[in-house]
Amino acid sequence: METSGSPKWAQVCVSASVICYLASLPSNAYCMGRGTDCSVGFMALIFGGFQLATDPLAGFPWLANPLLIIGWFLVFFSPRRAVFLTAGSLLCALMFLGTPGVMSDEGGAQHQVNSFEIGYWLWLASCALALLAASIATNAITSLKSA
Predict the structure, then answer these.
(1) What SS3 class is residue 3?
(2) Judging by beta carbons within 10 Å of its beta carbon (0-12, 13-18, 19+), is residue 141 exposed, middle or buried?
(3) What is the 8-class DSSP label of residue 105?
(4) How far apart are CA 27 and CA 41, in angstroms?
(5) Residue 97 domain-assigned (yes or no)
(6) Which of 41, 45, 121, 136 could bridge to 24 as Cys pair (CB 3.0-4.6 Å)?
């Protein structure tokens, strides 16, 4: 495998990951109730942090956010650690598919998620692209050491 282009591809994947993440913030992430009450990614990001504080098990998928952001930086400084963080980010994000409900107001009321919208899928793609970037960077380092 040629390694000269690998760091470039890792940069491309990280850039695509950041773009997907930023695009997920103003997009609908999920809908609850009768399907007309949707939450945009930015609000899911904020309320997810509160949910983590009030109900850690239900708020666990929110941890994908800090793991992802730290993983973006570690891709270039410590790719092996980035693989673990971004894999953890992807697993946490996937856990949201099985969530029984989300906090829908400041009082802590829970509502069932009825549909996952484009914002969620962009967030998930962001985690997957970050994992791909970390894997590419790790493979490039391994190839350089064995050469």
Answers:
(1) coil
(2) middle
(3) S
(4) 6
(5) yes
(6) 41
CA-wise closest residue to 72 among 55, 90, 85, 59: 85
In a domain, 1, yes or no: no
Query: Would you say residue 138 lies in a domain?
Result: yes
What the block records as the tokens of 56 is: 């850690």
Strand partners, 144: none
| β 102-103/37-40 pair status | unpaired
Domains contained in the chain, number: 1
Query: Which CATH number is 16's domain given?
Result: 1.20.140
Does residue 82 form part of some domain? yes
Residue 83 — pLDDT band, cuts 50, 70, 90?
very high
pLDDT band at 105 (very low <50, low <70, confident <90, very high): low
Distance CA 85, CA 12 (A): 19
What does the block give as tokens for 81? 């650690």
The model's pTM is 0.88
